Amino acid sequence: MNAMPKFSPADFASDQEVRWCPGCGDYSILKAVQRTLSQIGAKPENTVCVSGIGCSSRFPYYLETYGFHTIHGRAPAIATGVKLANPALDVWIVTGDGDGLSIGGNHMLHLLRRNLDCQVLLFNNEVYGLTKGQCSPTSRAGTRSPSTPYGSVERPINPCRFALGAGARFIARAYDVAQSRLPDILKRAHSHRGASFVEIYQNCIVYNDGAFEQFTGKKAAPDALLWLEAGKPMLFADGTKGLRLDRDGLKLEVVPVANRNSMAADVLVHDETNKSIAQLLIDMPFGSFPMALGVIYCDPTPSFDGAVIEQNHKAATGKLRDLNALLRRGDTWLVDDDVRIEIG
Amino acid sequence: MTIALTNPPVPGRMPSPAAPEAVVMRFAGDSGDGIQLTGGQFTLSTALAGNDLSTFPDFPAEIRAPQGTTFGVSAFQINFGSTSINTAGDAPDVLMAMNPAALKVNLAALRIGGLIIADTGAFDERNLEKAGYPSNPLQDLSLAPYQVIELDITRLTLEAVKPFGVSNREALRCKAMWALGLALWMFDRDRDPLIDSLQSKFGAKSDKLVEANIAALNAGHAYGETAEIGRPLKQITVRPAPMPPGLYRTVTGSETIALGLVAGSQLADLPMFLGSYPITPASPILHHLAKLKEYDVTAFQAEDEIAAICSAIGASYAGHLGVTSSSGPGVALKSEALGLAIMSELPLVVVNCQRGGPSTGLPTKTEQSDLYQAVYGRNGDAPLVVLAARSPSDCFDVAIEAVRLAVQFMTPVILLTDGYIANAAEPWRVPAMAAYQAFPTEFFSAVPAEGRINPYQRDPQTLKRVWIKPGTPGLTHRIGGIEKGFTTGEISYDPANHQKMTDTRKAKIDGIAQFIPEQEVSLGDPHGRLAVVGWGSTYGPIQQAVRRARARGADVSHIHLRYMWPLPRNLGPLLRNYQRILVPEMNTGQLKTVLRDQYLVDAKPLNKVSGQPFMIAEIEAAIAQALA
Q1: Does A341 touch chain B (CB under 8 A)?
Q2: Mapping DSSP to helix (H, G, I), strand (E, B) and coil, where does residue B494 land?
Q3: Among the four A155, B479, B543, B561, which has the fewest Cβ within 10 Å?
Q4: Could you count the other beta carbons within 10 Å of the beta carbon of residue B493?
């Protein structure tokens, strides 16, 4: 950013005492969001943060913007009303895996398919933190928790796959402590007109510590992460490996890359508008494949709020706004001293 | 509307053919027969003829139940007269039965001596069997207490529409139009406005189909004119009812709710946002408002009932008038969000168009069994305002009042109507908007000289908190569902603060009693032996029953509530002026319980939950018993 931000990250910090557990990944995300708001030149009064219920949903209290901490799972529905009432507001939804994909899954589906212009930050810690550690819809099969003492027998949902299936036109993935990358991804999400879905892996230090250590930790294998960049080859492991499309099997495969010559290895170049590749990137099983992070999919289409405003405007154009006339629409008749004189 | 007595029909005799005061007519047929459309058209012609009227559409929940069956019967009742009409009528004088099932379902309602016009063409063996008739009632003695005219409407209709080359199925669908034509002749009505209306309504569809329907209508009318049927089918003239001067139109409660909400939002100088999810019988409110974009109405069909109310709360938070409309099952889903609106103290109007319950209950039938839900039905101590409309006309004013209280007190308001009010039509003297006092909304925008904004600072009189729109510079703040600090609005778990906030929320709603009118007595003295206390759509039958009882010298009064919570400040003393209190309700005694709880009075219930409105006679009998 060349332009000097009018508000510093500190200006976006409220005077409320932050009450997440010490070491919670939410602190890092809060810092990244405050930095992002500063960098995009956001005005506090035009920024609204809407959340549901859960640890992540305390987020609005700590941002010096307008904020609405609502009820469990309903932030997308509340945000829809906020944005339709005042499209000039910059709406940020903060939710979690339980809030956004379990109790509020329906609202999330419809917000994404409608393409409401807003940013959805889904903090995925694969656990219910605020209610003390039950398994969540993103918890891995076999997860032992107070509600699944013998291990969860459910199959988890992949948030980005859900978003893509719902029709989201912007899907990105990051993790809490990726401070060098997260603000840039949030800036991209903000600049996208329409619903921007950002899944952020977030470490719950109390109930699910280390859940993402395999790719976020300092000791994680160097080939665990693939940061996607538009127009750039999908390289990882310090450029020694890449992703190639097996065109016969329609699946991705990891190929060695010699001498940084990705073209020779037929490594895919990231096209953010390619939905099929986005699907494959989201579905890659971690372990045999790296974890794809960054902007996975971005293919803008007109936003819901824009379409509503446009239709409202079009339908109202040329029509008289006369309440008395409206009340008198249709078949009417006049009674004058008990004698009917006219049929209208 | 002025109140006058409709003479009860004398048993065993048609109303005087010369000019009866009122006639109750019921059209009944298969749900696919177009009975509701026919009824609507007959209502229009009745209104244009200057009669006062009240209608009662009664149809099954299934869109097309199996043909010829009793559960597929759709009926439309209209009571019209030259005096004031308050109800759709206790017992029809005339029943137009388009098939055996329609006769079977509706015969019990017909008054003894009433007239049955039956389509003999539909009384074949198959239809008789489907209706469960062991023998043809037109041929045995079972209809002896009534007058019967047998017409082969099926054949007459088929002949009338033959020249238009429509299919047999389409031709049979014109039967109801033939019946309508005959009805128009019976009551000496002008056909032209209906023909115009049919042409403008269906002109876009197949021309020959419209022409065939009009031909059927004309044929039915011509049949009445020319056929020598003799008694008892005679032309009857019901003279125009005296009505206060003014411009009138026919409205249903759904229309007046929509119009009242628009009027209210304009008086409040606010754009309106409706979040709604389809549900019987509330959907027409969404349909009406979706068309009114030029009045700053955004109508949003949400993904579910919860999103419907939540989007409305979001819109209110952003500075619109948030509205959501539904019926009981939908309102049940909204209750957690209602708590949020109470906690965040945002204006919100929730229309509950009540239907038979519990669960899915009777979607198309009327009931008023959601009073407990409205007044008490939330977690926590969660007071809000509850209003109830008594008639389609009344919906307009009550909707405006709901908006006024919502924005002036920053509170959710539940407006109760019911399936009967939503669908019933009556003449409405169209008001002039200049007669309504505006209540323009003031958003708070003053940046405090020092320190931060306190979003829960209150007006000392009304206790309403300030309404600050996001986008207002210098006033950024956070609100939410967790208990708020008394003025700061910040999260507070302080025990004393929770006590204070709970008390304040209650005091705010209780205090609204000082800003609403005192309870008036609708009819009768403000003291005496018996008060009949009602709310909602029971207004018509209670009013007429009390009028009749008073005409016989009974010491009885009618009190009808609009403000269900808080109750009017004088209601307790007023009720204590009567020796006895009777509360007729289409539930098992919900207002009765509230009155007993609030005033320790011995309110006695009169309950009906059959999905049908009260009959005047039922309330009359209860009055007589209470005074015995």
Answers
A1: no
A2: coil
A3: A155
A4: 9
Preferred mutation among B478, B479, B483, B491 to probe A, highest tally of A CBs within 10 A: B478
Nearest-CA distance A323 → chain B (Å): 7
Beta bridge partners of A196: A119, A170
ipTM above 0.90, yes or no: yes
Closest CA of chain A from B247, distance in Å: 4
Longest dimension (CA), chain B: 92
Residues of A in contact with B336 (CB under 8 A): 71
Q: Chain B within 8 Å of A50 (Cβ-Cβ)?
A: yes
Mean of all residue pLDDT scores within chain A: 94
pLDDT tens digits along B376-401: 999 999 999 999 999 999 999 999 99
Rounded to the nearest angstrom, the gap between the alpha carbon of residue A329 and the centroid of all alpha carbons in its chain is 46
Strands (DSSP E) contained in A163-208 are 170-175, 195-201
CA-based nearest residue to B176, from B96, B275, B90: B96
Residue B275 touches partner A, C-beta closer than 8 Å: yes
Distance CA B65, CA B10 (A): 36
pLDDT score of B225: 86
- Asked if B532 reaches chain A (Cβ–Cβ under 8 Å), the answer is no
Q: Which of residues 282-321 of A touch B (CB under 8 A)?
A: 308, 311-312, 315-316, 319-321
Task: Report pLDDT for B64.
Answer: 74
State what percent of residues in chain A have pLDDT above 90.
Answer: 91
At residue A231, φ and ψ (nearest 5 deg) are 80, 0
pLDDT in tens, B247-301: 999 999 999 999 999 999 999 999 999 999 999 999 999 999 999 999 999 999 9
**Distance (Å, rounded) from C-alpha B539 to C-alpha B205?**
40
CA distance B268 to B366: 32
Q: Are strands A235-236 and A241-246 parallel, antiparallel or unpaired?
A: antiparallel
For B201, other C-beta atoms within 10 Å of its C-beta total 13
State the distance between the two ends of chain B, measured CA to CA, in whole angstroms. 31
CB contact set of A165 (below 8 Å; sequence gap of 6+) = none
Q: How far is CA B254 from CA B260, B326, B578, in A?
A: 10, 11, 36
B353 pLDDT tier (thresholds 50, 70, 90): very high
Judge whether residue B59 has pLDDT over 90. no
Q: How far is CA A133 from CA A136, A144, A208, in A?
A: 9, 10, 8
Please give the helix or strand (H or E) that residue B316 lies within, else none.
helix B305-317
Contact state of A82 with B317 under an 8 Å Cβ cutoff: yes
Q: Which of A45, A323, A336 sits opposite B472 (nearest CB)?
A: A45
C-alpha to C-alpha distance for A127 and A295, rounded to whole angstroms: 24
Structure tokens at A38: 């500063």
State residue B150's pLDDT score.
Answer: 93
The amino acid occupying position A257 is V
